[in-house]
Amino acid sequence: MSRREIREQIFKILFRAEFYTQEELEDQIRLSAQELEDADAEDAAYIIEKTQDICAHLEEIDGQINAGAEKWKTGRMAKAELAIIRLAVYEMKYEEEIPVSVAINEAVELAKTYGSDRGASFVNGVLARLV
After folding, report:
1. How far apart are CA 10 and CA 62, in angstroms?
2. CA 98/CA 106 separation, integer angstroms
3. Whole-number pLDDT of residue 8
4. Are 125 and 118 in contact (CB under 8 A)?
5. For residues 103 and 34, what is the distance between their CA atoms, to the nearest angstrom?
6. Beta-carbon neighbour count of residue 102 at 10 Å?
7. Quick one: pLDDT at residue 114?
8. What's the Cα-to-Cα distance from 102 to each of 31, 79, 116, rounded to whole Å?
């Protein structure tokens, strides 16, 4: 899988996790990874690891989003855009090998595909405030 495809799969799992309780989260991550038809074992393991790491840092990530997003706290954001922003913030803050500009660009591209009509500009605006 390409890095973009892996990122898309992580986003899908993060989005899906929004609809489950914290207790169900681990099972949902594993189930989602098992459903990856195009992923080899190494990619699936990477996807699970990154998703779990994002979830482990969720409180910190949400705190950074809430501090930077004027008038838009995470509780008010659309679930797709929130999952995309969380992924991008994680990449910006915890993935040293991913340039910030790449994390933002990839987030905007995901928002164009999965977000609302204004999702891409919203995601770009929130992430620009966090740089």
Report:
1. 17
2. 11
3. 94
4. no
5. 26
6. 16
7. 96
8. 29, 22, 21
Q: Tell me the pTM.
A: 0.90
CA 116 to chain centre: 16
User: Please, are residues 127 and 88 in contact by the beta-carbon 8 Å criterion?
Assistant: yes
Coil, strand, or helix at residue 53?
A: helix
Signed CA dihedral, 24, 66, 130, 108: sign only? positive
* Cβ neighbours, 10 Å, residue 50: 21
Q: Where are the alpha helices (DSSP H) in 18-118?
A: 22-34, 41-56, 58-68, 79-94, 100-114
Q: Which two tokens stand for residue 62?
A: 């949400």
Report d(CA 107, CA 42) in Å as an integer. Answer: 23
Along the 131 residues of the chain, how does pLDDT read in single tens digits? 889 999 999 999 899 888 877 778 777 777 776 777 667 888 888 888 999 999 999 999 999 999 988 788 898 999 999 999 999 999 999 999 999 999 999 999 999 999 999 999 999 999 999 98
